[in-house]
Write a structure and sequence with these properties.
Structural class of chain B: alpha+beta
CATH class of the largest domain in chain B: Alpha Beta
Strand order of the largest sheet of chain A: 4-5-8-6-7
Shape of chain A: globular
Shape of chain B: globular
Strand order of the largest sheet of chain B: 2-1-5-3-4
Oligomer: heterodimer
Distance between the termini of chain B: 48 Å
Number of helices of chain A: 13
CATH architecture of one domain in chain A: 2-Layer Sandwich
Largest sheet of chain A: 5 strands, antiparallel
CATH architecture of the largest domain in chain B: Roll
CATH superfamily of the largest domain in chain B: Beta-grasp domain
Radius of gyration of chain B: 16 Å
Number of helices of chain B: 5
Helix content of chain B: 25-40%
Distance between the termini of chain A: 49 Å
Number of strands of chain B: 5
C-alpha cells in the first residue's frame, strides 16, 4: 500500500472541502478503501477520516419511514429492532452480507460505494486493461473467467457486477440517498457503465452521503431478502432478490409488489417488469413463475455466467412465494 | 518522503505511544511496533479473520483498520484476554478442551471472534455459531471442534460462577 497523508476531519464541511482536492479519498469504515489500496486499485494521496464525526450515525424509525445516518454501521442497522419490524428485507440484506467483523466496521454510506469484486479490476499488476480503473484501456474480463460477472446492464466497456446487498433492498423500496441537501432516489444514484464505467454513482468530488431515508410501506413491511451463493455464509451473491408484497383486502390479489436483483447486474437492478406483470393479478405459483422470468429480460451471457440467467428468476420466484405465504 | 504521525493508543488497558506512517494498519502497529504478535496476519485483505481484535468491545479486522483510526478507542487483542493472574478466558480454555485447532494460526482470531459471538448472544445453536463465526476461516478445517468450543464456552460464560482452567 502506497503511503498517504492522514487527515482526521473535524466537521463534514472540512471533510467535504478536503475531499475536493485531487488524490483525496474519504475513509469511513475502511473496509473497501484499505482493501483496494492494498490491491493497488486505490492510490490516495490523502485519506480523510470521517469516522469520528458526530451526528451522522443515528437510526430513527417512525410511521413515515426510516432515516439511517451514513456512519451507522452495517451491524447496528441489521440488529435494529425497528428496522427489522418495518423493513425486514433491509435488515436481512445486511445480516447476510460480509462477516460479523466487517459489519461492525463498514458504514451504510460506504457500503453503497463498495466497488466491484471483478478479479480483473482488483489485479492491476496482472491485468492492466480495465475500463473502470483506466478508462479506454479495454476490458480483461471479456473472454476471461466470467462466472461472477453481470448479465444485466452490461456494456461493451464493462461487465463487472455490483456486489451490493443493502443497495438492492434500497432500490426495491425507493430509498433516498441524501448527500447534504441533495436527495437522489437510490435507483438513480447508481449509474450503468455505458461508455463511462469509471463513474459508478452520481456523487461528485467532495460530496458526502449524509443519510439514507426509506419510506414506510406495506410492501416494505412484508419483505424479504433472499441470497443464493456458492457457500452458505460470508460470500457474495450468485443471485439475490429483495422482494416486498402488499395484497388487496381479498388476501390474494397483488396491490403492490417490489422486486430488485443483486449479483447479476452492473448496478442494483430493479425488476419493474416483474412488478407490472403481477400487480392486479391473483398471486399463485404459476403467475409468480411466469412473471419472474421477466427479471432477466435483455440479459446477456458472457459464457461462464450463463447460469445466472436461469438462477435469477428462480430466486425471485422463491422470494415472492415466501412473502406471499406460498412457500 | 517519509511522513510519520504520533499516536497514543489504548491497547489491552495500557497507554502505548508510537510514531508510524499514516498507512500503518492496526495489525501492523500491533505486530511490528508494539511486539504484540498474537494477532495474526493471514490474508491481510479482510477475507480470513485471523487478525480479529476488539475495538470498543466490538470485533473488527485489524488489517483493514488504520492504527490512526483507533486513537481514543479501547483495543483488546488476544494478549489482553487472560486476567492478571494469567487465568485463561473461558473461550481459550474451551479451545484447548475441545482441541479446536491444528496448526493454530487462525486460533487467536477465532478466539477473539468467539468471545464477541458469545457476548452478542449469537451462540444459541450450532447453526447460529457457524453463521456468526463465518468470518474466520480455518485452513486446517477444524470447524467442528471450533463450533464445539464456542458452544461449550457459551455455557461456561453463562454459568453463574465457574472457575476457568489454569494456564497449561
Amino acid at each position: 500500500m502506497r503511503d498517504f497523508s492522514y487527515l482526521r476531519a473535524a466537521s463534514t464541511e472540512e471533510a467535504s472541502r478536503a475531499a475536493r482536492e485531487a488524490g483525496a479519498m474519504l475513509l469511513a469504515g475502511g473496509t473497501t478503501l484499505l482493501d483496494l489500496a492494498k490491491c493497488g486499485v486505490a492510490e490516495p494521496d490523502t485519506v480523510i477520516d470521517i469516522t469520528h464525526l458526530s451526528g451522522l450515525g443515528e437510526i430513527t424509525v417512525d410511521a413515515s419511514g426510516a432515516s439511517i445516518g451514513a456512519l451507522a454501521k452495517m451491524g447496528e442497522v441489521a440488529d435494529n429492532a425497528a428496522i427489522k419490524a418495518a423493513f425486514p428485507a433491509i435488515a436481512e440484506s445486511l445480516s447476510l452480507a460480509a462477516s460479523a467483523q466487517l459489519r461492525n466496521m463498514a458504514t451504510i454510506g460506504g457500503n453503497l460505494l463498495q466497488r466491484t469484486r471483478c478479479s480483473y479490476f482488483r489485479e492491476p499488476g496482472v491485468f492492466p486493461a480495465c475500463n473502470k480503473r483506466n478508462p479506454g484501456s479495454g476490458c480483461s474480463a471479456m473472454g476471461g473467467v466470467t462466472r461472477n460477472h453481470a448479465v444485466l446492464g452490461t456494456s461493451e466497456a464493462c461487465i463487472a457486477s455490483n456486489p451490493g446487498d443493502l443497495a438492492v433492498a434500497l432500490v426495491a423500496f425507493d430509498a433516498v440517498v441524501e448527500i447534504g441537501g441533495r436527495k437522489v432516489v437510490a435507483d438513480d444514484f447508481f449509474l450503468l457503465p455505458g461508455h463511462t464505467p469509471e463513474r459508478e454513482t452520481v456523487l461528485q468530488p467532495g460530496e458526502i452521503i449524509t443519510c439514507i431515508s426509506i419510506p414506510a410501506s406495506a410492501a416494505a413491511k412484508n419483505s424479504t431478502y433472499l441470497k443464493v451463493r456458492d457457500r452458505q455464509s460470508y460470500e457474495f451473491a450468485a443471485a439475490s432478490a429483495a422482494v416486498g408484497l402488499e395484497l388487496e383486502a381479498d388476501g390474494k390479489t397483488v396491490k403492490d409488489i417490489r422486486v430488485a436483483l443483486g449479483g447479476v447486474a452492473t448496478k442494483p437492478w430493479r425488476a419493474r417488469a416483474v412488478e407490472q406483470a403481477l400487480i392486479g393479478k391473483v398471486l399463485d405459483a404459476e403467475a409468480i413463475e411466469k412473471a419472474s422470468l421477466l427479471a432477466v429480460e435483455g440479459a446477456v451471457s458472457s459464457g461462464d455466467n450463463h447460469y445466472k440467467i436461469d438462477l435469477a428468476p428462480r430466486v425471485v420466484a422463491r422470494a415472492i412465494m415466501k412473502v406471499g405465504g406460498l412457500a | 518522503m517519509t511522513r510519520t504521525i504520533h499516536l497514543s493508543l489504548d491497547i489491552n488497558g495500557e497507554r502505548r505511544e508510537l510514531d508510524v506512517e499514516p498507512r500503518v494498519t492496526l495489525l501492523d502497529a500491533l505486530r511490528e511496533h508494539l511486539a504484540l504478535t498474537g494477532t495474526k496476519k493471514g490474508c491481510d485483505q479482510g477475507q480470513c479473520g485471523a487478525c480479529t481484535c476488539h475495538v470498543d468491545d466490538k470485533r473488527v479486522l485489524s488489517c483493514l483498520t488504520l492504527a490512526a483510526q483507533v486513537e481514543g478507542r479501547q483495543v483488546i487483542t488476544i494478549e489482553g484476554l487472560t486476567d492478571e493472574k494469567g487465568v485463561l478466558h473461558a473461550v481459550q480454555a474451551a479451545f484447548i478442551e475441545q482441541d479446536a485447532f491444528q496448526c493454530g494460526y487462525c486460533t487467536p482470531g477465532q478466539i477473539m471472534s468467539a468471545v464477541a459471538c458469545i457476548r452478542e448472544g449469537h451462540a444459541g445453536s450450532d447453526a447460529e455459531i457457524r453463521e456468526y463465526m463465518s468470518g474466520n476461516l480455518c485452513r486446517c478445517g477444524a470447524y467442528n471442534n471450533i463450533v464445539a468450543a464456542v458452544r461449550e464456552a457459551a455455557k461456561a460464560v453463562s454459568a453463574p460462577v465457574k472457575e476457568t482452567a489454569e494456564v497449561a
